[in-house]
Amino acid sequence: MSNQTRNIKSGFRALTMCKKCYTFYYKKAWHFERPEYLDDYVEQEVPVRFTECPACLEQDEALFEKESSLVLSRV
Q1: Residue 27 CA: distances (Å) to CA of 44, 45, 65, 69
Q2: pLDDT tens-digit map of 20-52
Q3: DSSP state of 37
Q4: At 7, phi and psi to the nearest 5?
Q5: Is 42 exposed, middle or buried (0-12, 13-18, 19+ CB in 10 A)?
Q6: How far apart are CA 1 and CA 20, in angstroms?
Q7: Under 8 Å CB-to-CB from 41, ≥6 apart: which residues?
Q8: How distant is the alpha carbon of residue 50 from its chain centre?
C-alpha cells in the first residue's frame, strides 16, 4: 500500500484547495489540475481544506490598496 493510499484511508491528509480560483496545493506548489492519486479513489471521501492561494491573496491586497488610495483622494 502506497504512502498516499494510507494517508487518504486514515484521514490524516486533507486536500488543500483555494476557495477563489479552485487551484490545488500539492507537491509544495499550486496546480490547476487535480492530483492524479485522486482518480484511484473516486468513491472515497477526501477531506478538503479551503484556503486562499498566494495569487488570490496578493490580488485582494492590491485591490484593497487601490481602494484605500481612492478614498484618500476624495478627502
Answers
A1: 21, 21, 32, 38
A2: 999 999 999 999 999 988 887 778 888 899 999
A3: G
A4: -65, -45
A5: exposed
A6: 34
A7: 8
A8: 6
